Amino acid sequence: MLKISLFLGLNALVLYAHAQKQAIAWGDEFKLKKGSSNISVIHTDKSGVYLQENHLAMKSYYVIGASTRESASLVKLDNHLQEVYRSDFNKELKGKEFEIFFAFWDKLLIVVSD
Fold this sequence. Notes:
Number of helices: 1
Distance between the termini: 84 Å
Number of strands: 6
Low-confidence stretches: none
Helix content: 10-25%
């Protein structure tokens, strides 16, 4: 009886130790654009994840200095965190200050100030 108990206990210990073995599988790296200052999650759905990537853009420049404004890019990642597309709104935001992306129902809105 002692041999059976010892055998069962040893098997349980081996199975427990094997079940705790960790395996990490790394995916491809997500590449940020040069000059990005912040990244945040805007919205998630069944098709993927929408990210906001902030960066500074030139607002106006003078002989002795320049002023900058904050601009943003919209990045969509699929369920496996692979980049699907990236939209930069520098042209549309020219002369305006970016505030936030806003998810409303099935649409993403961009809020800016003048």
